[in-house]
Queue: 2 jobs
Job 1
Amino acid sequence: MKQNRLWAFFWVLLLLGGALLVTAPASAAPVQKNIILATTTSTQDSGLLDVLIPIFEKKTGYFVKTIAVGSGQAMAMGAKGEADVLLVHSPDAEKKFIADGFGINRRLVMHNDFIIVGPPSDPSGIKGAKSAAEAFKKIAVSGALFMSRGDNSGTHAQEKKLWKAAGIDPEGQKWYQQTGLGMGQTLNVAAEKKTYTLADRGTYLAMQKNLGLDILCEGDISLLNIYHVIEVNPAKWPKVNAAGAKAFADFMVSREVQEIIAKFGVDKYGSPLFFPDAGKPE
Amino acid sequence: MDLILEGIRQAIHLLFTLDPEVLGITALSLKVSGSATLISLCIGISSGTAVALNQFPGKRLVISLINTGMGLPPVVVGLLVTIFLWRNGPLGSLEILYTPTAIIIAQAVIATPIITGISMAAIQHLPRELRLQILALGATRLQMVWILIREARLPLLAAVMAGFGGVISEVGASIMVGGNIKGYTRVLTTATVMETSKGNFEVALALGIILLILAFLINAILTHIQQRERPR
């Protein structure tokens, strides 16, 4: 009889392993309920989505899986049909995304702006520069260290655009360093090494007190940081939750949400982190 | 230095006020890594024992592969599991990407070679005569295997602790297959990375300290079992 018990025990042990694996998928939610939102680290880090997503979920009953990566990766996910809706801020790449047929209904949601920050000593003297491109040129000419995100994010794309406008190719130059990391971490590295960097105002404000970097250039029209919501094209990827994507996109441009966006951050930072733009001409 | 002190202060504060979000993250870490370790333990100890006790062509190669598996980069495992689980991948219809289940799977893949390799070495280390002795006393093959496992209890529990340690501290695969979704797939390690990237160093440190406390408690229990005196 001991033999039988031992046999039974052994089988139980082996089956336990298998059972845990098999039962788990059965508890996954039905496909229509889940929406995969691919968005940028700046929208997540600012805390805006932590406010908006619960409101959306309560209102519609959808479950939103917010995957915060860079705009580049978000669009790559959309291009593979692995996301349902995108909230990104990389306009040139977005236009290509739409042109390639991967996305539909690209709608303006909000904007904030980028700022050029750097050490208070401002070694390249960019404070008071007439444009962001001019500031970049000064940095390049003086050879002062510049920290780039180098990760194909919306911020990185904007930075590359500004270098182009300044007529400079920073790749390979000694003073041009790339972290490949998110905005918060890049700001930390820039602060540590006392370099210039391009940041979105939201993340900078959230980290300001510990950083020790000053805003040295702002307000230029080329520093506008514009967010769009894009639904992934269900014609290209039938498994996409098209209804959910549309519901979320409609939600982001709805009047009530636009008002929440307008007030977000005011009590903490004294000024809103984002400016609502839905419905305005591009 | 103040940062570390502040981190400790925050950790104590979060734990004593039973901050619900932190409790949820901690519970999820325990559940996910615990399940992964349990699965790996079942697969690992049985496979390790099987490889150790049997002769077959290519045994050396299999052992090398298992030992290599112990050093599998978790982030590569995460990438591979993602490719399998995403919608248009082979297992996409299961809809488990960005769920705690996906993290359990990835962590099980990481922990299994570790537990297998160490179990294998533990069983191989037992004297050959012991096997023959047990069989000579009239045990069935299965009973023999069970007795050998009991004999090797010390290193086998070390294997389990190694497997658990490997996955409770893992972050690369967990972020990739889990997505670090608030309240759903956010575990202690992924939350720590996020808080660091946001610049909230004190919170990140606090979460790290809580993780260390959790790992210590689990390992203390396992060590107690491991070091128990055998009944004479």
Note: Residues 2-226 of chain B form a domain with the MetI-like fold fold (CATH 1.10.3720.10).
Job 2
Amino acid sequence: MRFILLAMKNLLRRPMRSALTVVGVGLAVAVTVSLSGFILGYRQAIDESINKLGFQVMIMAKGCPYEAATMMLKGGTGLLYLPEDVYDQVRKDPAVESITPVFIGVAEKEAGGIAETASTSYTVVTGIEAETYAAMKPWLALATGPGYDGGRWFRPDAQDEVVMGYEAATYEQRKVGDTFYLSVIPAGHTEPVMHKFKVTGVLARTGSQDDGTVFMPYRAAQTVFGRPGRLTIVGIKLKEFAGPMVQEFSERWIKLPEVQVVGLEQVKSTLVMLVGAAQVMLSAVAVIAVVVATIGVVNTILMSVYERTGEIGIMKAIGASRSDIFELIWLETLAVCALGAVTGCLLAVLGSRLVEKGILAIFDIGVHGSIVRITPAVLGAAVAGTVVVGFFAGLYPAWRAASMRPVEAIREGIE
Amino acid sequence: MTDTGDDVVIRARGLKRYYHRGSETVRALDGVDLDLRRGEMVSILGPSGSGKTTLVNLLSCLDTPTDGTLSVAGREVFGLPEDELAGVRRGTLGFVFQKFYLLPTLTVAENVELPLVFCRRRADRAATMAVLGQVGLEDRATHFPRELSGGQMQRVAIARALVVEPRILIADEPTGNLDSQNGEAIFALFRSLVTSRRLTLVVTTHNLALGYLADRVIVLHDGKVLKEEPGRPAPATP
């Protein structure tokens, strides 16, 4: 029989107490792993979402640049617009590799959704120039298969054609050739105007904000929303995307009235900062959970040591040295923590989708895709961290047990 | 009585153990001279508080004397630190206590083999079964302590003490938790072990009838040897 087996068998003496302690450690580990997975996943999701915008730089009307960036990621209201001639001027800039105009509006859908509620009856409408927009997002492709075959981009001058993102089409139950209705209150009006569109194509799933968007020619969108000659943003890819180039480009165009130039790297870091406070709070919760679990482990092992005072005395009498007793109690603590770590990792992996839903219910963070990413590295770090915690948590109970004088321990045990 | 023979395994001279209780000094043991020989069964008798347990704790290196000299298996142990005392105990001394202290999650065989874990010796199940056979429990090897009677548990504790083949067996009130029938059976077992293994056995008891089954009886009173006389050992059970 080895020490580790003896330690494990000792834990089975009070199975309920040991199990509760393991579960306590497991919950703390699960919270820590989930939050680490969230912090990691959120950063990656922001990266991916912004990369899938296809732009490196956006020009937009003056206002809060982060609100504008968030709007680009998930849509929104209260949009600001800039004159279309900005697009015409900027496209001549020698630093520009590709450029695309974008008009964004929010319209009310008219029937046909799977489960319409007040919050789901609106959709983001993006007016684009199909050729330049698709060139900036080479991964965009028209979906194929039953109901999607024969799809195409709308004609540039069409006023009644739309291409739907994959999720938008699925949600609205639309196929190629179907009719799609939108109700829009044009700028300067108070009454909505109903518009009828033909779905000319459905985009294949991209895993980005484009999946939930309805696209139409930007000039048609300007007309529908009553804002001729206006754009929401101008998306730009530069020939060289290095810090100084972006800086020089920004300085050239920031001089235009009512315009701001936003680099998407800056947006990324800002979006991360926006939830930074929440991450600190969540990290504090994880730290508290770990501290409470550690105290629980120390308490459990100490109780076990005190209950076994007589036994420890006997073990010393039959030849156990101080280091033997120390090792035995320490192994018990490590075993509790290791089992807790495994339990917590399993809980975190199994519950990650639930955590994701919970976080999304609390924070509207404007990114697409999975935001809780529990990687093997996160799990490995959690197990290693818990074992390190166990290493320290076991020191005091093990020292107490090892320090018992056998004669006193046996006497106390008999009393 | 003292002895200078070569077969003396424990020798104590002027052994004292004082405790301090507040300003009071308790003389639990106050100058005991003692020689214990190989193959000898010695009972230590005396009323509560006479110093029986204090004496066996010192003889078994579980406690350290305040003064005097003590030699166990030829080694002077006075003043040794705890870990060296553990080394003396390991393999030289076996212990049986009033309370059995069997680990409830280990089987009988595993409990018996426990000292081997601390001696870093590989358990030999055949040897374990042989020891269990000596205490009459070979058919209980896979049982757990909760499945045994008090007398059987004490036999397991004796087997646990014997598995390291000690030269000296110390039993402190081994029959204190047993009825008279089981108590007599344990003493009969002790007698057979002393005979078959040539063990030195030191046993404390309140039971005079059992105590006088030893080869020699030492009566303590107020921490001193009141008298020492031969016992009336019964013949060993074959």
Note: The longest helix of chain B spans residues 180-197.
